[in-house]
Design goal:
It is a single chain. By secondary structure, this protein is an alpha/beta fold. It has a domain of about 350 residues: Rossmann fold (3-Layer(aba) Sandwich), CATH 3.40.50.1820. The chain is about 30% helix and about 15% strand. It contains 13 helices and 11 strands. The strands form 2 sheets. It has a 9-stranded mixed beta sheet, sandwiched between helices. The chain has a two-stranded antiparallel sheet with strand order 1-9. Helix 12 links the parallel strand 10 and strand 11. Helix 8 crosses helix 9. The N terminus is likely disordered.
């Protein structure tokens, strides 16, 4: 009830503010461009001089242009870019050369050609606590906060960006706890309800207000005198726990962790039409992107970093041990977050596929063209479209021409603990994601972890011959970990293994942190 009333009030205030900003400042600021996704896509192709793009493969195996699932045809470009060789040809043999030379080279290529650049000037985010209360998750008492990150829009008041985030920590902790930030809808786990007497007052007031608005409702309320608009919660049901693992939040809390839910759509919309809105549109003052501008994956990662800014100020959080998690497109975003913000201590990267842990150079399932020629191009920098071009002023390019690949993205996370997770096609984690190609990339990233004093998967460094271990067989003895569970398009079955692995690496003892 409290949440509903607050949201109604916030919406009214936000709408009024937006209307005032639009009417009062429209003459001073250019209005935001309202492209459709197709128009924005065409605009970027024009900027790049692209006349046509190769169509992406179909996920329908009966279609004429179906994706390849034959391993014999899966590696047309078997040689990956060298991860430990400088652009001048010199080998990287020391950690200092990695940090000072090779890592910046790789990061620059990813920014320019794949994910886009973080703007030199991004507006400040001010975090506000909307709700702070004691709640229960299952039978665990927690501290729950609903937060909003208000982005400064003083340089372009026609757009608002309010980042929605929820922080939940165990109330019985002795001190700060490690936290896993998850790309997800932001919501309190179990909003506290007013006592019965106060709910009765609310219902009485609501009925009076509704009758004033519509007098005909008086007859209905008289006919059903026991009816209340707001239902008083009943007692918590008891019984045997459901089969299977508890939900991820419950597992984290039981292990003495906290968790954060940060909502990607409040940072940047997940479509091309939204590129002149959200944080990308705000920085560009409502105008279309340039070729090197950031895409949605980098924007979501930026939002996660701003969430971490807040966590560094919260005394309930062990800010040195904040992890980042996501599945599918948000698995891509989690990997990008880890790669570009070294403050994140760990990553759980779920079923991330093309643009995430999957090798671009693999011809198996989803392909580069699946991103460049589709409604998913907005995840990437405009420049990424070049690698799907069949006809352009620069000729044509393929995945082979991309200067970097997924193994180098994983390597940017080194030496921090990085867990690559997948499920199985039989349960819905489609072959489209190319689990084998992601395993190869993880193997190929291993030498960087070892160079920096961390442990890799503990297998051969030869990614060309690397074969995935069996389902439910985890390679989890090092800072670089892999596990393919027997579930679907989720990382939930791997969460308990992630917690055990992470606790060991960060030396977290949940019993020592509980009251």
């Amino acid at each position: 009830m409290k949440n509903a009333l607050f949201l109604l009030f916030a919406f009214a205030v936000s709408t009024a503010t937006a209307q005032q900003a639009t009417t009062g400042t429209i003459g001073k600021y250019p209005p935001p461009i309202n492209f459709t996704t197709e128009q924005d896509h065409q605009n970027m192709m024009k900027q790049l001089g692209i006349k046509s793009l190769r169509p992406g493969p179909s996920g329908d195996e009966s279609a004429p242009n179906h994706a390849n699932y034959d391993e014999a045809l899966a590696n047309p470009y078997p040689d990956l870019p060298e991860v430990l060789t400088l652009k001048n040809g010199k080998k990287v043999t020391t950690p200092s050369t990695w940090w000072n030379q090779r890592r910046p080279e790789i990061a620059e290529d990813f920014e320019r050609e794949v994910f886009g650049r973080l703007p030199k000037k991004v507006p400040k985010v001010t975090w506000k606590t909307l709700i702070s209360e004691r709640e229960y998750v299952g039978f665990t008492p927690v501290n729950a906060k609903q937060l909003v990150g208000v982005v400064d829009n003083s340089e372009y008041p026609l757009l608002d960006v309010h980042i929605a985030m929820t922080l939940v920590t165990p109330a019985n902790a002795k001190g700060p706890v490690p936290v896993l930030m998850m790309f997800s809808r932001s919501a309190l786990p179990a909003p506290a309800q007013p006592p019965k007497e106060d709910l009765e007052k609310i219902n009485t007031a609501l009925k009076e207000l509704l009758v004033k608005t519509d007098p005909s409702l008086k007859t209905i309320f008289e006919q059903y005198p026991a009816y209340n608009p707001v239902v008083i919660p009943g007692p918590m049901p008891f019984g045997p726990p459901p089969a299977g693992d508890p939900p991820t939040p419950q597992q984290l809390l039981a292990a003495g962790w906290g968790y954060v839910l940060i909502e990607p759509g409040t940072i940047q919309a997940d479509n091309g039409a939204g590129l002149t809105k959200g944080i990308i549109g705000l920085v560009n003052k409502g105008q279309p992107r340039k070729t090197e501008d950031w895409g949605a994956l980098r924007a979501w990662a930026w939002g996660a970093s701003r969430g971490l800014d807040y966590l560094e100020t919260d005394p309930l959080v062990d800010a040195k041990h904040v992890g980042i998690e996501g599945v599918s497109r948000y698995g891509k975003a989690a990997l990008v977050t880890m790669a570009f913000d070294q403050r994140f201590a760990l990553g759980l990267i779920g079923s991330s596929g093309e643009g995430g842990a999957k090798l671009h150079r693999r011809n198996f399932g989803e392909a580069v063209e699946s991103l460049t020629a589709s409604g998913e191009y907005h995840w990437m920098a405009g420049n990424f479209l070049k690698y799907g071009a069949s006809e352009a002023t620069f000729g044509s390019k393929t995945a082979k021409d991309i200067p970097v690949d997924a193994h180098q993205l994983i390597a940017l996370c080194a030496p921090r603990p990085t867990f690559i997770s997948y499920g199985i096609p039989e349960k819905g984690d489609s072959k489209w994601l190319d689990q084998q190609g992601s395993y190869m990339a993880t193997v190929a990233a291993g030498p960087v972890f070892k160079l920096l004093g961390a442990r890799d998967l503990g297998v051969s460094d030869n990614y060309k011959t690397a074969k995935m271990p069996g389902v439910n067989v985890g390679l989890m003895d090092g800072e670089l970990a892999w596990r393919q569970h027997d579930g679907g398009h989720t990382d939930a079955p791997n969460v308990k293994y992630f917690i055990q692995w992470a606790d060991k690496l960060i030396q977290h003892n949940p019993k020592a942190t509980a009251r």
